[in-house]
Structure formats: structure tokens, C-alpha cells
Amino acid sequence: MPRLKDKYTNEVVDQLKQDLNCDNVMAIPRVNKIVVNIGIGEAIKNSKALDAAIADLTAITGQKPISIKSSKSISQFGLRKGDTVGVKVTLRGNRMWEFLDKLVSVVLPRIREFNGVSNRAWDGRGNYTLGLNDQTVFPEIEFDKVDKVRGLEICINTSATTDEAGRQLLTRLGMPFSKD
Known about the structure:
The chain has 4 helices and 5 strands; from the N terminus they run αβαββαββα. It is an alpha+beta fold. The chain has a single domain, classed as 50s Ribosomal Protein L5, Chain: A. The chain is globular, with a radius of gyration of 18 Å. The relative contact order is 0.21.
């Protein structure tokens, strides 16, 4: 069992039950899935960018990504309907818990001048989205082999119905929120 999942079942559930005054165990918030995606606008002109992004995302998550196709054509960008504009991975189960543990304990502390993640990235329904400017903060990425620094987006989907319940869940799991 992943370390963070063990912490959730043995400690966090009891703490959240008290904090949120939940009578029903099923009402306690939990992490449902984590979606990691990289947008690749330059893939239209450079097919190697797509291959590099797929390799990076596979190394980071341990799972093969699917490609995101454009839904319509935009002539100003030279974009046609069906062109690949990004790649994404949806993590569930043990891979999700291992990724979240790695994100909280290894990746975020490696960011230069890190003061915590923003408190403003909630969607109103208990889900949190985090953007990283650089994929090289992940230990699986070798800095020498990176052709271009790409940002990525991490969306943590929870069963919480409010942002405050989601914030308490992620805080208990070790997410370092900033003081602002």
C-alpha cells in the first residue's frame, strides 16, 4: 500500500471526520483522480516536441499519455481540426497515491524560492489545479536530455463538495499551501 494512502486511511479520515462533523464515513472527502497534462502548441510545426512531451509525461507518471486533439480549426494559429495540441494522463488507485506523495514530498520542495502553492486555484467544487512552469523539477527527468522546458498542469479531483473541505483534505495529506 502506498505511504500516503496508508496515512489517509489511518489518520486523515479520523481527523476529517472530526473537523467536518461527518456522521457518515462516505461523506468524508477523498482523492478520486489526478489528471496531469501538457499543452503542446508547437507540435503543429515540430513533431519532435510531441514525442518529447510524451516521453516526459510517461517518465513522470509511469503511464502512457493520450493525445488531446483540437476540436476546431483556427487559421490564425495554423491549427486544423484534429491536430494534436496536448497530452494527458489520468491517474487513479495506487499510481495516483504514489504520484501525490512524490509531488508533495519531493517535487514541490525542489522548486526554487517556493513559498507554498496558491490558495486561489480551487474550482468551487473541491477540486484543485496546480500549474508548474518546469518539468525538470521531477526527479525522473534528466536535465541534459530536455530539448525545451515545458509547463504542465496537475488537477487533483476530490469528492469534497466545497473548497474548504478539499483544502482540509489536501492540507492533511501534506500539500503546502501559502499563507496568502
